[in-house]
Write a structure and sequence with these properties.
The protein is of the alpha/beta class. It has 9 helices and 7 strands, in the order ααβαβαββαβααααββ.
Length: about 280
């Protein structure tokens, strides 16, 4: 029996990706976000026709871009609903294989993969460090692994962390709602919190002000579709962990990765390392 997953969280993501299947995202915005997440991924270090995995593929939004650059990509997710969405979105890709599995039961041989990545997933399981270990097991020696984990605002001022703590109380309440009500509430949050704050940051940036420290400035040039998706992701998810850059490095090293490199830009934190 798999223990390193939360069934309610898996169910919630299945509902999320069924509603926001990412077909509403503009290609340019998707490409820009992909480049940010993969900014430290060593594409040049991969062998020809590299084979690897996307752990927690969700709707397949990153897999579609990654599959263009590799020989074979295994899309793995614990939610059957999410995999159905990914299958539709990646139906034109003949080098993608789909697996319904949790991080405890990745259906790939140990020491067999040329690369792996897991973006925005492992902070939603009970044991994040254990999840990284399971991913690294599947890699060949010298193969890279890319991970994105929610940051603990370790590069933000105290007032910023205080704002987050207040919002997290609200998240715990919203995430316990039935999906229909939860979606309505998170849409309202996107419309009346995300959108005005993001566009205010965009205006301030155009006027010459530094805006990276402002709440939700990350979304200043993003579409309202992305804001709705991420509002549901942020406030609708029951289980969430956050980590400092130091903690992430320690977990990666403990899992057997070295030559670890962090992205200094948003989203925080993205890091890549190589299996020893």
């Amino acid at each position: 029996m798999n223990s390193n997953l939360d069934s309610k969280t898996v169910e919630g993501f299945g509902e999320e990706w069924s509603r926001f299947d990412q077909t509403g995202m503009e290609a340019a915005e998707l490409a820009e976000q992909f480049e940010r997440y993969f900014s430290v991924f060593p594409w040049d270090a991969l062998p020809a026709d590299a084979e690897g995995f996307d752990l927690g593929c969700g709707s397949g939004r990153w897999a579609g871009k990654a599959a263009e650059r590799v020989g074979k990509l295994h899309c793995i997710d614990a939610s059957i609903s999410a995999l159905e969405v990914a299958r539709r979105n990646l139906s034109g890709r003949d080098n993608v294989e789909f697996h319904r599995a949790s991080v405890d039961d990745i259906p790939l041989a140990d020491d067999s993969m040329d690369f792996g990545y897991s973006l925005g997933v492992l902070h939603h399981i009970p044991d994040t460090a254990g999840g990284i270990v399971e991913c690294v097991k599947k890699l060949k020696t010298g193969a890279p692994f890319l991970v994105y984990l929610y940051y603990a605002f370790d590069n933000r001022p105290k007032w910023f962390r205080a704002v987050w703590k207040t919002s997290d109380i609200f998240r715990r309440f919203v995430s316990s709602m039935p999906f229909g009500l939860k979606k309505t509430v998170t849409d309202l949050i996107a419309a009346f919190v995300y959108f005005p704050l993001a566009r205010t940051s965009l205006l301030a940036e155009k006027l010459g002000f530094a805006v990276d420290v402002l709440p939700l400035s990350t979304y200043r040039a993003h579409s309202f579709y992305t804001m709705r998706t991420d509002s549901l992701d942020r406030f609708g998810t029951r289980l969430e962990h956050r980590f400092t850059r130091i903690q992430i490095r320690e977990m990666m090293e403990a899992a057997g990765l070295d030559r670890i490199l962090f992205s200094d830009g948003r989203p925080y934190w993205c890091a890549a390392g190589f299996k020893k």
